[in-house]
């Protein structure tokens, strides 16, 4: 195995401007602020967090749909951090995206064949006849009827549309596919079909995935490694086994316990952290630990003063967290959740 | 007597291509203060069932049959003036998409006040007071100032809270929630579910929870209806359903759920697509996707029958008891809980 993607201290700040003609920058939104990870070829990195935590912005920077403000992105040995459009073009053949909304991400006025063939056209691969054959092959690979080549997207269901999006991403044999919430808009039964399909494709075509989701259940099924993000920063990263066996950050604990369990007896027995409110505005993030206003384990004078850094878990090979008062046991108990009396979150 | 009693409900839509049988013979009861979970895929008829119950399907294009008794009164086919009195006052509704259900050019407060004024003879000031109180109840911070905001100034989770506030503002006896958390993050979903449970405890309202997620059902419901192809294919108390589901479709739904408390290297998927309601398959609607289907399933629709020893647990399936017992035992063994990961 070799490193396909190395991201070091990635930053993306969006300027907030005032004025129409003379735009003056008055503030910055730090959407991504110091994300680092390494992805081996053939691996899947699951990126998890609530809406507004910067996970999509991070992915768009990696795909170079956005220009990073700082940091470094090394893809397949090339530093692509600040490459221009034309220089990116050959590299784009190796990285593709699958988007969340299968309704908005397919051009409603194009036929399925044209949609799937688009990457082939853009990169001028093969003759017309080759392309058509390739598209039919792709439709078959993702489990659609190749005869549906001439249909329009509206003739397909949500799950089938997501398959079309996946066929398009596969068209020119990319190395990396970035899946931005690919199953969030789908029914659970269809979700299972798409997750299984993505796993099969990874095995058959040696794909590497960055898989973005807000549901830790889904991520567990597809990922080798997990990164939990909060307000632009990773708060916990780890190999799947180590992360799920013993999550350390209270935010990871909140995300894990928020998922409904399909077992009434287990569901009633477990302890849950229900977070209050939404992710705060990244325009004016909380001081020190950005999670402190919502954290059930918040300690005044420490968490709001001293920013915790990503520290490795002792004894674990690949597991790190950024918290002063990490969870000590998992599944967590009542005392674990409410370390000190706090109004930030409530306990069920 | 049950608060809401639905008997043999049918809804058929006339379209240019033919008749769509969206709901075929659905029956259930809802008691005061209880939660009924309704599960199924898109197109299983779960939303249309409750739109029909509420009298919200367009009778010009839909044929409706059966009986809907609300608090003893037959409301199916009741005049719209009577239905308007019940809807919003005694039955509140929460829809999936909070952005399209709120009017984007009216202030939140105005929209809540409207719901109050429609059903109560009170002043604008009193309505506004109630609107603020309702927002406080759904834990919107600074409700007295947020009441003058527009929907776009709220996040998705907060908009859904506003929808809940609107559904609750007249203290209804029943709340019909159609996929209220599907568009939300898991953390926000947990907040909303907790809030709904708490409001149910405070006000004693009955809840109908329409969802495609069995996890939400396990968390919320007392009783469950599993719908497929416009029919109820299994109905049971929530514990019975999860301890021993009887119908292959329910097995498929359970298996396709990624779960933290169970280890499965590969999810069990239900192959294929939900059936066309325009040309439903002969026999059991699930037979084309069922791994256990045999000749009888392709010919004859199974009746809704009670499980052995459990009169309240009913299902539609031609497989005999021993066969279902054997298959479920094997499935259960394959889904063994993971060491120490039962969250």
What does this structure look like?
The complex is a heterodimer of chains A (348) and B (343). Chain A is α/β, with parallel strands linked by helices. Helix content of chain A is 30%, strand content 24%. Chain A folds into two domains: 244 residues, P-loop containing nucleotide triphosphate hydrolases (Rossmann fold), CATH 3.40.50.300; 102 residues, no CATH class. Chain A contains eleven helices and 14 strands. In chain A, the strands form three sheets. An eight-stranded mixed sheet of chain A has the order 6-7-8-3-9-10-13-12, with helices on both faces. In chain A, strands 2-1-4-5 form a four-stranded antiparallel sheet. In chain A, β7, α6 and β8 form a beta-alpha-beta unit. In chain A, α3 crosses α4 and α5 packs parallel to α6. The C terminus of chain A is likely disordered. Among the domains of chain B are: 75 residues, no CATH class; 90 residues, no CATH class. Helices cover 35% and strands 23% of the residues of chain B. An eight-stranded mixed sheet of chain B has the order 6-7-8-3-9-10-12-11, sandwiched between helices. In chain B, strands 2-1-4-5 form a four-stranded antiparallel sheet. The longest helix of chain B has 18 residues. Chain B is globular, with a radius of gyration of 21 Å. The two termini of chain B are 39 Å apart. Classes of the chains: A alpha/beta (348), B alpha/beta (343). The interface between A and B is large, with 49 and 49 residues.
């Amino acid at each position: 195995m070799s490193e396909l993607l190395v991201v070091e201290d990635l930053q993306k700040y969006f300027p907030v401007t005032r004025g129409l003609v003379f735009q003056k920058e008055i503030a910055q939104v730090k959407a991504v602020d110091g994300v680092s990870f390494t992805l081996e070829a053939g691996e899947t990195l699951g990126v998890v967090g609530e809406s507004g935590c910067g996970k999509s912005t991070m992915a768009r920077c990696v795909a170079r749909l956005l220009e990073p403000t700082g940091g470094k992105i090394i893809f397949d040995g090339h530093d692509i951090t600040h490459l221009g459009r034309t220089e990116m073009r050959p590299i784009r053949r190796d990285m593709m995206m699958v988007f969340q909304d299968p309704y908005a991400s397919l051009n409603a006025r194009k036929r399925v064949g044209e949609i799937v063939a688009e990457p082939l056209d853009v990169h001028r691969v093969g003759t017309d006849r080759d392309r058509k054959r390739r598209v039919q092959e792709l439709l078959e690979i993702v489990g659609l009827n190749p005869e549906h080549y001439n249909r329009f997207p509206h003739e397909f269901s949500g799950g089938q549309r997501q398959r079309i999006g996946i066929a398009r991403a596969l068209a020119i044999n990319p190395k990396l596919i970035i899946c931005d919430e690919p199953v969030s808009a789908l029914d659970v039964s269809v979700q299972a079909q798409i997750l299984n399909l993505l796993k099969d494709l990874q095995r058959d075509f040696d794909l590497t995935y960055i898989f973005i989701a807000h549901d830790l259940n889904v991520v567990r099924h597809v990922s080798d490694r997990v990164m939990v993000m909060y307000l632009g920063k990773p708060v916990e990263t780890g190999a799947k086994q180590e992360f799920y066996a013993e999550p350390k950050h209270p935010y990871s604990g909140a995300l894990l316990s928020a998922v409904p369990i399909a077992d009434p007896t287990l569901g009633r027995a477990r302890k849950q952290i229900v977070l209050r409110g939404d992710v705060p505005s990244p325009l004016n993030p909380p001081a020190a630990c950005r999670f402190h206003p919502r954290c059930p384990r918040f300690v005044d004078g420490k968490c709001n003063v001293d920013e915790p850094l990503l520290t490795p878990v002792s004894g674990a090979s690949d597991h790190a967290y950024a918290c002063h008062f990490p969870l000590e046991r998992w599944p967590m108990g009542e005392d674990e959740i409410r370390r000190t009396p706090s109004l930030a979150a409530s306990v069920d | 007597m049950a608060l809401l009693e639905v008997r043999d409900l049918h809804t058929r839509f006339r379209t240019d291509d033919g008749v769509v049988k969206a709901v075929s013979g659905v029956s259930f009861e809802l008691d005061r203060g209880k939660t009924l979970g309704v599960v199924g895929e898109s197109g299983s008829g779960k939303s249309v069932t409750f739109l029909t119950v509420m009298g919200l399907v367009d009778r010009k294009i839909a044929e409706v049959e059966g009986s809907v008794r609300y608090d003893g009164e037959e409301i199916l086919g009741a005049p719209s003036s009577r239905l308007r009195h019940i809807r919003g006052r005694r039955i509140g509704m929460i829809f999936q998409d909070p952005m399209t259900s709120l009017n984007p050019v009216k202030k939140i407060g105005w929209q809540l006040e409207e719901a109050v004024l429609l059903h109560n003879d009170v002043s604008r000031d009193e309505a506004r007071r109630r609107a603020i109180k309702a927002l406080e109840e759904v834990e919107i911070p600074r409700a007295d100032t947020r009441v003058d905001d527009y929907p776009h100034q709220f996040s998705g989770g907060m908009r859904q809270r506003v929808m809940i506030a609107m559904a609750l503002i007249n203290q209804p006896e029943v709340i019909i929630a159609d996929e209220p958390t599907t568009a939300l993050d898991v953390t926000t979903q947990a907040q909303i579910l907790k809030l709904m449970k708490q409001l149910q405890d405070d006000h004693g309202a009955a809840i109908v929870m329409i969802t495609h997620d069995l996890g939400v059902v396990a968390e919320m419901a007392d009783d469950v209806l599993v719908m497929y192809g416009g029919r109820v294919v299994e109905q049971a108390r929530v514990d019975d359903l999860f301890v021993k589901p009887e119908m292959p479709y329910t097995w498929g739904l359970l298996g396709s759920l990624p779960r933290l408390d169970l280890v499965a290297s590969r999810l069990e998927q239900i192959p294929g697509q939900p059936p066309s309601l325009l040309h439903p398959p002969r026999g059991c609607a699930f037979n084309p996707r069922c791994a256990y289907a045999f000749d009888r399933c392709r010919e004859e629709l199974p009746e809704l029958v009670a499980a052995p020893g459990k009169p309240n647990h009913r299902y539609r399936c031609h497989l005999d008891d021993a066969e279902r017992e054997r298959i479920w035992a094997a499935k259960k063994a394959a889904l063994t809980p993971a060491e120490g990961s039962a969250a």
